Amino acid sequence: RVSYPIQQLCLAGCEVSETGLQTIPTSPSLQWLDLSHLPIGNAAVQRLLPVPENLEQLNLEATRIDSGLGNWLRKATKLNEVDLSWTKVGDEAIESLTGATRITTLWMTGTQISDQSVIRILKIPDLKSVDVQRTKISAAGVKQLQVGGSQLNVNPLELRTQ
Question: What is the DSSP pairing of strand 153-154 with strand 8-10?
Fold first, then answer.
């Protein structure tokens, strides 16, 4: 059992279940949380970090989270890097992140976000890189991101189909 405050927790790709994650105590001082590719949902994330006010980096790629995590995301105002790729989140997630004005990198690959999120993404003041491949954002929406964010790197990795 961990007896000191955890500031960084990376379990990406480990064989940890929600039950196993429950052995880690609530960690209010977490600044970096990476649970990518774990079979966990909203409840596991919220239990581990009920108030994400100190969180700066969040990676929940390919987890079972969905738009129900919105209220929790609203409290994560210090985020600077966010990866919600390949999850079931949609436009509500982008809306929930509007208070996180320090975000520089946003990975939304394979999510349900649409053109509705384009304006909100462009309003993130420090955003340098965003990936919206395989989303519901149209070609016109991607073009709007490219033109509207002159210093914005849009879709930095090229995904290819086999």
Answer: unpaired
Global pTM reads 0.92
Tell me if residue 136 falls in helix, strand or coil. Answer: strand
Nearest to 131 by CA among 147, 115, 142: 142
> For the segment 119-162, what is each residue's pLDDT rounded down to a tens digit?
999 999 999 999 999 999 999 999 999 998 778 999 977 766 65
Rounded to the nearest 10°, the torsion over CA 116, 117, 118, 124 is 150
Q: Measured on CA atoms in the order 137, 73, 64, 130, is the torsion positive or negative?
A: positive
Rounded to whole angstroms, how far apart are CA atoms 117 and 141? 9
**What is the model's pLDDT at position 158?**
72
Instruction: Report the sign of the C-alpha dihedral through residues 18, 25, 33, 132, in that order.
Output: positive
* DSSP output for 64-115: S--GGGHHHHHT-TT-SEEE-TTSS--HHHHHHTTT-TT--EEE-TTS--BG
Could you tell me the two tokens for 72? 């929790």
Closest CA to 90 of 72, 71, 116, 64: 116
Name the average pLDDT for the chain. Answer: 93
User: What confidence category does residue 85 fall into, taking pLDDT thresholds of 50, 70 and 90?
Assistant: very high
